[in-house]
Amino acid sequence: MSKLQASEYQKVHKLHPPVPLLLPRKATKDVEIAGFTVPKGAQVFVNVWAIGRDESTWDNPHTFIPERFLRSNVDFKGQNFELIPFGAGRRICPGFPLAIRMLYLMLGSLINSFDWKLEDENMDMEEKFGITIMKAQPLRAVPVAI
Ligand code: HEM
Fold first, then answer.
1. Ligand 1 atom nearest to 98, measured from its CA
2. What is the pTM of this model?
3. Which of 6, 23, 53, 110 could form a disulfide with 118 if both were Cys (CB 3.0 to 4.6 A apart)?
């Protein structure tokens, strides 16, 4: 999905999907994965973007369907590797207890206080790839007094 009509977007009243990224790690011992040997000490990147778009785990992985999580037992706190927005294990994001409280508070306040519309009629969902993934074109959302 590269372009989404503003009208379609407003109809479904959804917010931007989570930002995917690559998590750097070092192999602590020699491991064999899919016929390849990853030697001890090698730098590896956990591709959280690909994990989040794995068709064997998620239906329509490229479509933004936040309701999918309402009927799912998959948690985001690092125990279920299908979904690790805050990482997992010893280097899990130490800010996540704060982040999950602030996100609900900030988003809830913004949605409760305003209606929102897009500055541009078309929403460009093109991505710019890096260690983190950003939108290629910044999202310009305009608050409208309720
Ligand atoms: C929605 C908000 C946030 C997301 C999605 C997020 C996500 C992440 C991710 C994926 C990592 C890497 C974890 C890993 O390597 O396994 C990380 C690390 C980290 N985060 Fe966050 N984070 C968020 C908010 C915060 C906040 C609010 C703070 C601090 C107040 C914070 C502080 C840190 C620190 C210090 C690390 C490095 C931990 C380490 O390398 O041991 N984060 N975060």
1. 27
2. 0.79
3. 6
